[in-house]
Amino acid sequence: MSILKTLKVSQFRYCLALVILLFACSAVLLAQQEDKNAKEKKEEPPKKTSQEKQKGQGEPRRGGPAQDKPSQPAPAQSNPRTSSQPQTGNDQNRGQKATDQPQSREKQNPDLQNPENRRPERTNQGQQQGQPAAPPQKQVQPKVNRNEMGRGGNQPSGQTNTTSRPVPQHGKPGTPAQPQIVRYPNGQPHTVRTVDGGMVRRSATGQVVEVHTPGGAVIRHAPTGIRRVEVVRPGNRLVVTSGRNYGYVQRPVVIANRSFVQRTYVSRGVIYTRVYRPVIFGGITLQIYTPVRYYRPAFYAWAYNPWPRPIMYTWGWGAAPWYVFYGGYFVPYPTYVSPIYWLTDYLIADAMASAYQERIDALSAPPPPYAVMPRTELTPEVKQFVADEVRRQIDMERAESQNANSAAYNADMAPPLFADNSRHTFVVSNALLVNSGLRECTLSEGDVIQTLGVPPMNSPVADVGVLASKPMECRKGSVVSIPLPDLQEMQNYMRETVERGLGELQTRGGQSGLPAPPPNSANTIETPFAAQVHPDNNAAQELTQTEQEANQAEKNVVDQSSVVAGQTGASPATISLGQKIDEVVAIQGQPQKIVDLGNKKIYVYPDLKITFIDGQVVDVQ
């Protein structure tokens, strides 16, 4: 009986094991079949609907030729260049079509949703001027990496909108594939960019103001007739010349593990050096003058305080050609109560006399003088602003002299221009063409400007008020925009000249009516790095070579720009002063950066900056 029960249990277990084995085999076979079906389904290309097939006709395939004669025309699309709404910088919205337009190619092809796989759409420039559209392009642009934009590639960033920058074909990165023209409202050329990297900017009267050569030289023509050439040489050497006898060679130097720049100046055969510390402010590198020697504390105290009694001093240039040239714009003080006011006249006279001599050397003939002014434009009130700034500069230098090491080596501090959040007054030493509202105007040597506070973050310019100017220049009381490097050079010039004037007071004290400084204030104290500053022996030769090379290079670019400006019909769409923001965006595309200064906005592109005031173009650089 027990044997029978054991046999039945064994049969039951055998049947149960057999059932489990059959279920396991079935599951394995089912899983293999599902995996096979999934692979076949994945490898099979997606089927297009009839509507999608209809849309796909007439559009070139990625990597294949365009279809010249589509069986059915694609639906009409509006040109984003003529849209009145500027596109946003969001990647999801770039190149977005209006709601009544057909489905975008990104939705038809999922590969295009990757920004690196997108290719810029091509539009015909004639569509912007109401001309018939050109036939579809047969070439397909290769994929571009948006991270390579502006780093030597020859393709615009991987955006799907049609406002991409022209594809650079020649010269340095960022140069246009075809000439670009910016015009004044009257149609005259403002800026012309050539395909090889050249650029010419003209004033409203047609005079050449600025030239960029394909070789990298920047040539500026001041309203006074002086030409300034800037060229970067190997080793990050900057050569700046303003004529046969003027200029400097700037090169980086490392002193005590700190970075400085040294300039070797050449002025009518005289060679001297200056040292500057680079400071980055708002994304722009400013060169801050750094003395290599200071006066003694007793001398600063003597120069900072009033003299025991007012003195009379005769300068000796009352009949000098430069003084007569300016037609009574500037009159020195009749008496001096302190060194501050003597240094104020010394500063103003030096700026005007030096600029006059540069004009003579540049033009090889005396320029026509200013008409005699009915009143002195440089009033005592304006000169008081200058005197207060001179006092501030002396006080700052006196404080630095207490710790020359820290003052010279601290490259992280804000530039003195804006460190105290105060208004500063400067004398213009080199003529500039600047913007005042919707027009351009001139500031020349001896004009006086005053800063209006710290400029907004990342602004390349600062607004200043004009306190004094000459006839036919920026109007007194107007507000103009000055590039930060030019403003910093005004501050450098003031400090260098005041320092030189202090040297005159120290050596000539007790003569010609000047009070003598105290005995314990003689000589100077050198900084630890003064011995490491030496002039470049070949600076004069470099200036001469740069001047000669610029002559032919400038002529070639100007001649080429004149040909481009005279072209019609096939010329590219142009930007005109007075255009609105959406019109510029339709032509140039979205900028790399927007500097928002309230009613003033600066659109920064790879190769130009466009300034808007109240939504209209006022300047292109």
SSE layout and pairings?
Layout: H1 2-43, H2 50-56, H3 105-108, E1 180-183, E2 189-193, E3 199-202, E4 208-212, E5 218-221, E6 227-233, E7 237-241, E8 246-255, E9 258-267, E10 270-281, E11 284-289, E12 293-295, H4 297-304, H5 321-325, H6 339-363, H7 380-401, H8 404-409, H9 416-419, E13 425-427, E14 432-436, E15 439-443, E16 448-451, E17 461-468, E18 479-483, H10 484-508, E19 524-526, H11 539-565, E20 575-576, H12 581-588, E21 593-597, E22 600-604, E23 609-613, E24 616-620
Parallel strand pairs: 1-20
Antiparallel strand pairs: 1-2, 2-3, 3-4, 4-5, 5-6, 6-7, 7-8, 8-9, 9-10, 10-11, 12-19, 13-16, 14-15, 16-17, 17-18, 21-22, 22-23, 23-24
Describe this structure in words.
This protein has 621 residues and is of the alpha+beta class. Among the domains are: 105-164, no CATH class; 269-536, no CATH class; 585-621, no CATH class. Helix content is 29%, strand content 21%. The protein has twelve helices and 24 strands. It has a twelve-stranded mixed β-sheet, sandwiched between helices. A four-stranded antiparallel β-sheet has the order 13-16-17-18, with helices on both faces. Strands 21-22-23-24 form a four-stranded antiparallel β-sheet, with no helix packed on it. β1 (180-183) and β2 (189-193) form a beta hairpin. α6 packs across α7. The longest helix has 42 residues, at 2-43. The chain is elongated. Residues 47-173 have low confidence and may be disordered.
pLDDT averaged residue by residue? 75
Coarse structural class: alpha+beta
- Main sheet attributes: strand count, strand direction, barrel closure: 12 strands, mixed
How far apart are the first and last residues' alpha carbons, in Å?
A: 111 Å
Radius of gyration: 35 Å
Number of strands: 24
**Fraction of helical residues:** 25-40%
* Silhouette: elongated
Beta-strand content: 15-25%
Discrete helix count: 12
**Strand order within the widest sheet?**
11-10-9-8-7-6-5-4-3-2-1-20
* Uncertain runs: 47-173
